[in-house]
Amino acid sequence: MAKKQKPPTIVAELGRPETKAETAARKATDSFNYRQRKTVNNLVFSLIVTLGVVLVIFLAVPQGKGHFEDQALDVKTLAAEASPTAGRTLVAPEVPKAWKAKQARLLQSDDVNYWKITYTTVDEATGQEAYASVVQAFTSDGSPVDDAWVSEQFERQEPTGSEQLAGIDWVVFDHPELSPDNSNVVFALQGTWKGDAILVSGTDTPATLRLLAIDAIKSLESGSADATTEPTKEAS
């Protein structure tokens, strides 16, 4: 006896059985949607795995927090090493032990060569930090450093006076109205030593920066004297 054939299923949306073409189209759509969902799931899983690997690497590698804050360069040694290249004694002032030298480099800008030292200064009484810079600038042909270049180093601030320190005449740039958050030249001094422009600036107190200027000149005079002193020969 032949089996009774099952009547075709009526699709609710159509109100009738699907045609073969409609069935094929539905199955194709279902298959496509399944593959799309699987692809998205795989992408999400891959992203999670990648982020996990990145996190592990990040946690495994030392981050060096505080390294720059704790860094303090040996300015005297660096100045001595750079002096032959500069062809002159380079400034290396004595500063308080709490200060940290962050930069001591021989640089060039336009026709000006310059030795630049930057410090994070520290008030030993309060622990408050500030910024200070010493620049010794000179030209290859010995001509004076251009005033426009100096103005750029001082953020184009206007001079406010003059004074004498350590036997040097200085142009003063005193701008207490400026915020240390917006300017590194709240106070500055511009002097000349043996044809080189000496620039001292920063956000520390004028008294502190004046002492830095004095120590800068002392270091130049001391270094120059050492360079010109010939060793004495012992009597035979």
TrEMBL record:
Q: Which residues cross the membrane?
A: 43-61
Q: Which UniProt keywords apply?
A: Membrane, Transmembrane, Transmembrane helix
Which InterPro entries does the annotation name? DUF4245
What is the name listed in the Swiss-Prot or TrEMBL entry for this protein?
A: DUF4245 domain-containing protein
Species of provenance: Leucobacter viscericola
What taxonomic ancestry is recorded?
A: Bacteria, Bacillati, Actinomycetota, Actinomycetes, Micrococcales
